[in-house]
Amino acid sequence: MTTQRQQVLVLYLRNSALDSAVVAWAVYDGTGRERHMSGDADEPPYETGLGALQDGWRLIQASPLLDHGVGEEFRTGYLKYEFFFEKLVCDAQTGEATGGRDPRG
Question: Over 80: is that where the pLDDT of 15 sits?
Fold first, then answer.
């Protein structure tokens, strides 16, 4: 029996386009193979959100596009272009190939 575990990749992009640059990220590995924490890498796992798609990550949520209120066009208190990706990986006990690469490069 094959057991699948979920890996989640959260990318914050420069703007709403998937081919824009990654400015922040988080990686969560439900397989238990690796533990990630904020700031554990100097470089993003992908240069763009499109790069994650091309490597087999599935886009499961993109941030809604919201208008800025008057006077808040340059507010920097949050990262609004957040994209959630997932990859389903076969359990290590089965010995099956996982496909794709480590999201941190």
Answer: yes
